[in-house]
């Protein structure tokens, strides 16, 4: 089962590998653009949360879940390289021997740095524009500061769950043919992880970048941000590779013909 889709994912990893070998800067730029798209999601979702988060009600969390999917939608349809999704794609490529370990590490590192750079630059523009003041800033800072208090084990486990869901969205884009169906499933997957409060490394890059540039209390430090991103990044890698890529790749290795219907 899923042989064709797995081969398609592996081919994507091979294309990425060839692309970065041809031009590291161009690949970095695609990752940089993804960081910009994520800040669009942050700006929209936390502005919406700021509007509805009144009287201590938890409407803000729901608002973030309902609106943050624009980020992954832009990355998929406009084009960009997202570290978390690549954890799935490159693991499949590695298992299928479409890419080498060296190129897998190279792709992940460059993609991560590109996402980080894009998040920082776009967050700077967003904050300096004054757009979050009085609208998104209060809720954004509240969430950013709360993330600094989670213990390492909770960050790690939330990150596993998060990228399991995000990479499900990526996998479904290979499984589905209709663009509308893809968009619907992207929405549901992002709605699930964002509303549930799971941890996404690139979303956190953008969130923390904006929060550190806004007036914030002393609990939000660079050290606390590094602590969060370290555990969340590790959890995201495990969630996308070990918990999703490996099982689907293993299932695809059966000897049953793709023409045979499995009952």
From TrEMBL:
Keywords: Membrane, Transmembrane, Transmembrane helix. The chain crosses the membrane at residues 27-48, 68-95, 107-127, 155-174, 186-211, 231-251. It is found in: Membrane. GO terms for molecular function: formate transmembrane transporter activity. It comes from the Bacteria. GO terms for cellular component: plasma membrane. It is a multi-pass membrane protein. Belongs to the FNT transporter (TC 1.A.16) family. This is Nitrite transporter NirC. It comes from Clostridium fungisolvens.
